[in-house]
Amino acid sequence: MTFTDGFTYRDSVLTCDDIPLTDILRETKTPVYIYSLRAVLDRLEQHRNAFAGLNHHVCYAVKANPSLPLLQVLAQAKAGFDVNSRGELFRALRAGADPSRIIMTGVGKSREDIEDGLAAGIGWFNAESASECRLISEIASAHGSTATLLLRLNPDVDAGTHPYISTGESDHKFGLSAADIRSLAAQASWLPGVHIGGLAFHLGSQIFSALPYREALRHLMRTLEDITPLLELQHPVIDIGGGFGVPYEEDGESLDPGIIAEMLLDLLGPQSDDVTLITEPGRSLVANAGILVSTVEHVKPAHDRIFLVLDAGMNDLLRPALYNADHGIVPLRESLGTVTVFYDVVGPVCESSDTFARRYPLPELDRGDTVALLSAGAYGASMSSTYNSRPLAPEVVVLNGRWHLARERQPLEDLLRGERPFTAPEAPRA
Ligand code: LLP
User: Domain boundaries in the chain?
Assistant: First the structure.
């Protein structure tokens, strides 16, 4: 389990920061997400070190894991944030983020998103269409403020990742073509309340090769050269998004952002001192710092297989159902016998897609035994839902040998929050 940061077996029990997870489960029950904040901070430091030769701001992509204590420790470590909605902005500000280090990204910013961003005084807005530039200009000039825009380039580069999480090709909804960026830059002086500060791209997620970044960077630099005289950009900002791939299995690969930093230094040459670089890592900071712990509800032999029915389902961790993603599964107690059984590991939700793994080797397990679904720190809780009216799972953070309940299990009453049933027994007449 070397690839999962911060979780190790001690005395045959899985621990986080020396805390046996069985201690935490006694209070939280399962399913429960557990995150090692030490692991997140270590990954942040590694990421920063990789780009240390450049003027670099790291803006953590909140969508990967928006848990408040996690955002708090990142804010304390002076990370910036990439927010994709006013909801994520609200969370980042609650966690104590420095607004000047916040970038608002996203292809469909609403008036409310933009208004909240301007009111908070965020550092940058990515802009992905002429329509969005006009809307930001209209709102900013009405507020008497100036928004700094980074135009998102669609470099038409294949990132070689799952099609659902690939974002840099010309048939994707994201970003602007180089031609559109040139024409927007030429019109920029017509747009009051906005200042174009540089260019951005984001190629997708879980990328393992530096080559797509190189291709996209070349494209970005050419576009930047074209627009620099139009805008008198002396200190451009270059935002290369996130996407840095991480392993989901023992001995799996990861993408070293240091290679991308070297490429950038090479491409920029002496200009590198004048450029500010933004990166927006999400998954690479948090994926392997989190697990989802679940209890075996039933062991169900069927005609040609054995189902291990867990108390966690696709509503808690959607990635296997949505992307066919593999998450490692380990028992919480390492010493559970020596017989290996190949299970189809499934959840309790009423869909066959509610399957975490097929023919997965585990020690023989029984009802009541607990397992951990690994690499669940990114896009796990953040993509969870109450499908089948199953309450959201609690989340626990561990730091400095202590654990803290970051989110309680959603009470059943909360499932009805905001709902308005009829108060009379019969439905109103039409
Ligand atoms: N910046 C932008 C503009 C993004 O859209 C994203 C992710 C990121 C940064 C962070 O990317 P990361 O470093 O986490 O790869 N739900 C999917 C992943 C969707 C990613 C969406 N955008 C999954 O579970 O694999």
Answer: 7-35+287-414, 106-279
Concerning whether 350 is annotated as a catalytic residue, the answer is yes
User: Are 14 and 24 a contacting pair, CB within 8 Å?
Assistant: no
- Hey, what CATH topology would domain 7-35+287-414 get? Lyase, Ornithine Decarboxylase; Chain A, domain 1 (2.40.37)
User: Measuring from atom 1 of ligand 1, which residue has the nearest CA?
Assistant: 241
User: How far does residue 366's CA lie from ligand 1's centre (Å)?
Assistant: 37
Q: Is 387 exposed, middle or buried (0-12, 13-18, 19+ CB in 10 A)?
A: middle
Residue 336 is predicted with a pLDDT of: 66
CATH 3.10.50.30 for domain 106-279, yes or no, is: no
Any alpha helices (H) in 144-247, and if so which ranges? Answer: 178-187, 211-231
Q: What is the pLDDT of residues 107-142, one digit of tens each?
A: 999 999 999 999 999 999 999 999 999 999 999 999
Ligand 1 lined by 284 (C-beta under 6 Å): yes
Which residue in the block uniquely carries the two structure tokens 């998004």? Answer: 241
Give the tens place of pLDDT for each residue, 134-187: 999 999 999 999 999 999 999 999 988 888 888 888 988 999 999 999 999 998
Q: What atom of ligand 1 comes closest to residue 165's alpha carbon?
A: 19
Residues 26 and 146: their CA atoms lie apart, in Å, by 52
116 Cα to the center of ligand 1, angstroms: 22
Expressed in angstroms and rounded, the spacing between residue 282 Cα and the centre of ligand 1 is: 6
**Which residue's alpha carbon is nearest to atom 23 within ligand 1?**
379
Contact 280 CB / ligand 1 (< 6 Å):
yes
Find out whether the beta carbon of 64 lies less than 6 Å from any atom of ligand 1: yes
Question: Among the atoms of ligand 1, which is closest to the Cα of residue 207?
Answer: 15
Measured in whole angstroms, the distance separating CA 298 from the mean position of its chain's CA atoms is 32
What pLDDT digit, counting tens, does each position of 263-294 carry?
Answer: 999 999 998 999 999 999 999 999 999 999 99
Cα–Cα distance measured from residue 68 to residue 88, given in angstroms and rounded to the nearest whole number: 10
